[in-house]
Amino acid sequence: MNKLLKCFACFFIILQGMNINAQDSQNKTLIPLAGNAYSSNHLEGKRTITNNGIQNWTDSSEYFTVYFKVSEPGNFKITIENPTAIFGKSQLEFSIDNARKKVKMEESKTKQVIEVGTYKIEKEGYVALVIKGISRTKSNFPALSYLGVSAENYNGTIAFVPNNEGEFYHWGRRGASVHLNYQAPENVNAEYYYNEITVPAGEDKIGSYFMANGFGEGYFGIQVNSEKERRVLFSVWSPFSTDDPKNIPESHKIKLLKKGDNVTTGEFGNEGSGGQSYLKYNWIAGNTYKFLLRGTPDGNNATVYTAYFFAPEINYWKLIASFSRPQTNTYLKNFHSFLENFVPEQGDFSRMVVFNNQWFCDDKGNWNELNKAKFTADNTAKQGYRLDYSGGLSGDGFYLKNGGFYNDYTKTGILFTRPLNGLKPNINFAELPQ
Question: Which of 72, 102, 196, 256 falls between 20 and 30 A from 434, CA-CA?
Answer without folding.
Answer: 196
